Amino acid sequence: MQDCFVKDSIFNVFFITLYFKKLGINFTMSDHDGTNFSQWDLMEKPGVQAETPVLIIETINGVTPLDDQFGVDDKKTVPDALYESLWGQLDLTTKLRTYAILDAAKVPNLFDQLAATDLHHRCMYKGQAQDDLGHVAPWLVQLQEGNSFSRRLFTHDEETNDAMGYHWAREPGIFIRTAADLEDVLKHFRKFTKVKSETGQWHFFRFYDPVIASDFFKHNRQDVDLCASFFRSDTVDIHSLISVRGRSGTADIFSVSTKHPIKRIPYLTLTAVYSIPTLPELSVLSRSRAEAEAEAEAEAEE
User: Which of 43, 69, 110, 290 has the greatest number of beta carbons closer than 10 A?
Assistant: First the structure.
């Protein structure tokens, strides 16, 4: 039953769609322990819209994954086309760290793989949510250049992907560049992982799926409030968010325009006009646990 619920509500669900324009639902974001952060109001009128895009979007096409690199002494960690975006530094005074938010629903045994590394990592769910759903939850990982796990995220070989743990084709998550430490980054992004509707139902927002991330930020690139919420907090200043779609060999790099010195706001507004366009394969609304379990029982009886 739980597996049925997990597959439908986490792996396949993309619930922030134009469907909500008809519903007018207010959402409350929570940190899984009942602490509310803010509300997502889907209103008829758009929120504050900038005349020019708040986000700068750089798209890199034709990105080729790393191969096995067998016999190579000085192995690359990421493809050359992504090196500057993922490891480059602004200056000598500010050191940017590289994080990944990875989807355990896409990466088999992600926890075990991370536990076998020396990379700092944390589940973005906590408490009972982590106990129940940690095997399909988003995980925050601080990547290191030269690390074998970091390298496997960008490696692809049709014949050895599963055996060697190469994850490029899985499109496992998104990447974050910031000077903030892991705990601050965790606290900042955790509040976006789950929302509660007015009816009391919880829904998961899979913003860490690169397909969803690219559509979400492109569609809302002029929404000042939304961009401020994702890219700024009291302790975190996101330099860039990188969405890599391995199957198409495309990477989108999102960063805040210097023309818009946005500051942290106490709430996040998603409007009907600037909600995410529906994607055919991800347009299913999250069902309640009761509905998922009822369907599983019906299938079992058949």
Answer: 110
pLDDT for position 51: 56
- CA-CA-CA-CA torsion for 200, 221, 238, 31, nearest 10 degrees? 0
**Mind listing the pLDDT tens digit for each residue in 144-154?**
999 999 999 99
Distance separating alpha carbons of residues 228 and 223, to the nearest angstrom: 9
Q: What would the 3-class secondary structure string for 77-99 be? A: CCCHHHHHHHHCCCCCCCCCEEE
The tokens of 258 are what? 């210097």
Q: 284 with 103: CB under 8 angstroms? A: no
pTM: 0.73
pLDDT level of residue 23 (50, 70, 90 thresholds): very low
Nearest-angstrom CA–CA distance, 129 and 241: 26
**Cβ atoms of 194 and 123 closer than 8 Å:** no
Domain boundaries, the chain: 2-301
